[in-house]
User: Fold these one by one.
Assistant:
Number 1:
Amino acid sequence: MDKWKKRTKAVHAGTRRSSYGEVSEAIFLTQGFVYESAEQAEARFVKLGDDEFIYARYGNPTVAMLEDRMAALEGVEAGFATASGMAAVNGALTALVKAGDHIVSSRALFGSCLYILEDILARFGVEVTLVDGRDVDAWRTAIRPTTRLVFCESISNPTLEVIDLKAVCDIAHENGALVVVDNVFATPVYSYAAEAGADLIVYSTTKHVDGQGRCLGGMILGKRDLVRGPVEAYLKHTGGAMSPFNAWVMLKSLDHMDLRVNAQVDTAEKIAAALEGHPKLARVIYPGLKSHPQHDLARRQAERAGTVMAIEVKGGKDAAFKMLNTLEIFTISNNFADSKSIVTHPATTTHQRLPAEQKALLGISPGLIRLSCGLEDADDLIADLLAALEAI
Ligand SMILES: *Cc1c(COP(=O)(O)O)cnc(C)c1O
């Protein structure tokens, strides 16, 4: 299997067949498992074998298929599936730190990630330093002897700042710290996090893996000793497990994730090119555009630039709301990477909670709109956007 390319792994890796020999992956919608004898039950509670299960909070065959398939895709040893992307971020961070430890993180983070770092972990005596993730020297300066973890979104939501992942991993490892990467925007299709040296790679599978806006899910990927060690111990006892039904939905979606994501990136590239320089826009932020300040780094790290971009309309919140309310195909919502194209106004929704000065620092201005490009016809989407801009 190791020699297979990603598209083959996405369809076949990790498959477990029952005695019926089913072609399509089965949903084992069971929380418990029957033992043939009391001795077998005892033995499993002493040490669980590779393909043995005792309780779905610890593991389940359908969930295990998804974990193994995503680990194979990422090129790492192991995975632990979680109930949501945030359960994965929380599990990866909390499993690895204790009171007195220090974390260095990029500042450009999803609001809930910031909440874990600044509110929850702080209550348990973990200190956090936030840095400008684009500035490699800032990472180096912020590291201390007590730094246990380094955390970042490899491409940030919603302003698409790109982290030089290899440089950040090298700095962390030279100082004995582990690196946890929230890799949602980079996508599992174009991920470079394992090659760069990330110790744990976290996804919200709610995004590109499901890709059709149905289920919440998350995944923590990395070396077996970390994932099956502290991460699994933390998650199985605190109850962050993924539902077998959701794991089955995600498995079926992995079959065509590569096709969907590539088609969505084709569309994103066309939309970015069509909108750049539009007189109603102050800027179009997409790492695939030459005008993106980190375009060269983005190209060096990943094959393609992703399915999401941000645009800033001139005229602030009123203009942004006018655009959102005029769009006919793009729906107003706060998910992304869906097959349906979605617009989000981060300043009043996903990032509303951030203090004004943080928003300003991150470029989350009143005119900023996040565009998630779906599977509709690109020309229809461009016409929809141009008409909405005209209405401002
Ligand atoms: C959506 C998202 C999450 C959280 O995922 P959920 O599945 O909604 O819990 C975490 N990080 C990033 C970058 C995200 O986009």
Number 2:
Amino acid sequence: MSVDFETAVFNSLPADKGLYMPTFFPQIDKEMMSEWGKKSLSEIAFDMAYALLKDDISAEDLKAIIDEATNFDAPLHQLENDVFVLELFHGPSLAFKDFGGRFMSRIMAHFLKREQKEIQILVATSGDTGGAVALGFLNVPGIKVTILYPKGKVSLIQELQLTTNGNNIEAIAIDGTFDDCQALVKKAFHDEELNGKLNLTSANSINISRLIPQMFYYANTYAKLKDQFEELIFVTPSGNFGNIAAGMMAWKMGLPISRFIAATNSNDIVPEFLETGIYNARPSVQTLANAMDVGDPSNFVRILDLFDDQLPELKAMLTSYAYHDDEIKRAISEVYKTKDYVVCPHMATGCLAVVTDKMLHPNLEKTAYVVLATAHPCKFPDVFSELGIEIEEPEQVKEMYQKEKISLAMGNSFEEFKAFLMK
Ligand SMILES: *Cc1c(COP(=O)(O)O)cnc(C)c1O
């Protein structure tokens, strides 16, 4: 069943338990793309978003939303002649999830203003999602945000991003695991009394409005490299496979991309699937690249859908490699020593994937690899002190240390959480 964009944004999940996808992919005009070399990230973003959403949002409103949501850069850092890092960590939470968080919040606010409604977002986080949601929704009118995180189990910078905001953002430290936080949020969404009183909405990564803005930086990278290279291969460190699904949506709209490589940690469900044809979901294992510790990637069905579930077609476009923690550590040291560049554990899987892929395809010409740097390394400090690498913290982190941490401590009983929400 198809619904309009607004419904897809607020429902997050369709009733049939699938995921929302655009019903068709408008093709980006070739002439327009040839002009992109002269355009900024937010101008290119507008071209793509307008092609997709022109029946749902006026050009003027969409432009204002994008200018506000995409107000930081996604620069390329050259590592080798044919290898680039796409730095996606220059937003407020220092991770690529800022693109999704900021766009989603402003899209929601846009529709809410029209309907004079208020909503309450509930989100459970193991670290990175919560920061992007908190900072993405901060001071956005009509929306209150409650974030549950496992006490003592997120990094210091992640905790500061969750707890130093105030205003419409509320953080709760749950005495338990991420799964406990997730279970509380799920129960709340199913509780009739709560839903009768509050307009509860989710902000998780399967929301289609988080994927759309992630197409923008693939397009912007193409614009920057199109005159130097004929073929582009994007290497995306993947967990729930939303980021790479967005790249594939951009390709589906006509962006010239030769191939995608999904780099994973030991949670190798997708590389295994591409090799064997068997999708074996299983509990995730803990790794250094913990934002990718996913045992049943929620967005992978979107990728299958883009290829009409045809494995040979999918395999022509998608390659996937998996790496263990010891390989991740070695890659971080190696890149630091040889390139004087610090990569986070997630991005390290991408660097490893380039090495593997070059070995398997030694004679590629006029081809560039672009590795997506999904987070700033300072968000994952433990591994770097162990490796003896010092990281420079961005200015916004230094400012956060000055602010007061405010969070509510709570056990993991649903009654307590519900009573808190009801009052
Ligand atoms: C969320 C996250 C990922 C995984 O992205 P998906 O879209 O879930 O594949 C990778 N790296 C970092 C740093 C993240 O926060």
Number 3:
Amino acid sequence: MMPFYLNLHPNVILLASIALGIIIYRSIRRSWTRRQFAKAHGCKPIARSLSKDPFLGLDLLPGTFRAIRENRILVRSLEFFKTHGNTFTVRELHVSAIVTIEPENIKTVLSLKFQDFCIAHRLKCMKPLLGEGIFDTDGDHWAASRALIRPSFNRDQVADLRSLESIFQDFFSLLPRDGETVVDLKDLFFRYTIDSATEFLFGQSVGTLKKSEAELGFADAFHYAQKAILMRGMLGPLEYFFPDRRAEECNCICRDFVQQFVDEAVNAVETRKAEGEKADPSSTRPKRIFSHELAAQTSDKTRILDELMNVLLAGRDTTASLLTNMFFMLAKNPAIWDKLRREVAFLEGRLPTYEELCNMKYVHCCMNESLRLHPVVPRNDRQAVRDTVLPLGGGKDGLSPIFVPKGTLVLYNLYAMHRRKDIYGPDADEFRPERWEDGKLMPRWGFLPFNGGPRICIGQRYALTEAGYVLVRMVQEFRSLVSRDPNEWEETRGLTVTSHNGAKVSLIPA
Ligand code: HEM
Ligand SMILES: *[C@@H]1O[C@H](CO)[C@@H](O)[C@H](O)[C@H]1NC(C)=O
């Protein structure tokens, strides 16, 4: 039998050879220009790779699966930086990445060379729930989202303390006060933040703290839909083999639920416009509602819906996780609680004003310290959209620049960076709010709980007000917080990192 290619017309063979020639020529030229580019920037190769198998990184997988099962992904990553330095490469299945905990590299990715990186890989798993908005798009779409949302966060005081107090009262009414009963604050914090986020975004709280567990329709659907995002992210292209009906259902429940508020906001804005001319300018200004502010700027209902979903996702679990992690640590450190009590004592039991809350130094030290030791977004990544360079990680000493080819993922690990002893000192692994006290600790890009650069968290001030408020009110109401969990803090994986065992405490009233 003749080999099949001898049957082909000579022109076909000629064309195929030319095509092959072009491909080979291009790839040689690309690797040549890349080498020139890398040389021109003084790049040196990254000395260490985590994976011994350079193709699929299969040698790492068993350890990864074990670490996931044992909730030790973050703890395990600390080991890697100890053995491989601050910047190394890694390969796991289809992903090839550079991992770094150098503040200068992270600053370059997020700020100096912002245009060289994207989050396009995020959209695919988030879009079914979020649509396209500020949190999951790049480029012009993202810039338009940011411009749309920005004004609502730009004022001095974003969070309204009166609504926070009313939600705090719902929260407070569910706390046991006998000093004996054990309560896990985690579940209550997650309800507190969804109640306050929906109040802020839609002008109307979903009121989960007022309901029994059984009636949490929207909140439950949202919870499941978020877990599904993580699953889709892990499965990657395999997603098609594991369709998740429940996730599709939950996405619909969430989007339909929020759609009502979009309709309501667009109607309200239209009515207000129609009545605008005859409105009395001296009448009191209505409460600010995020969805109405969006509707005042665009009548595109899908856009409003998508942005609301994006901000809800970005803002809810993050703050609840901060509170859970922080209360876990506070319960283990009675001396810190006592010191907080001394800080709020001047209020003599009345509610703090916004300025007073902002000025409570030690409250802010505690929040920073929690975000340092247990950053709720502990790892993050960006993908290079063109060939580019990072300043550190090359050569044996890791002090030369490194070349980052287009398509490479750059992973940065805040959990490990926040524990660098050369930045935070020998007690970097300890929870010690005092390290922030004298204002001398200024890690800048070495402390990044809210990210940095053009995509810095837009809700930072809102989050710190929301979390600080609960902390101050709890400190006012309770003489002490007793830990009912003998274990150390342990991570749990979600989109954010929360104490695996929640925050089990009992409370002794003041
Ligand atoms: C302790 C609480 C919070 C933490 C630790 C936190 C952290 C972060 C981080 C790390 C990012 C960057 C994500 C990335 O680009 O990869 C981010 C973005 C964002 N956050 Fe927060 N966040 C918190 C609370 C909030 C709240 C309460 C809101 C809104 C009410 C909010 C709204 C956003 C939005 C809209 C973005 C996307 C910004 C953009 O891409 O332009 N966050 N946040
Ligand atoms: C907490 O960290 C932020 C960001 O680095 C800093 O600006 C702020 O001053 C810190 N707060 C305290 C009380 O040290």
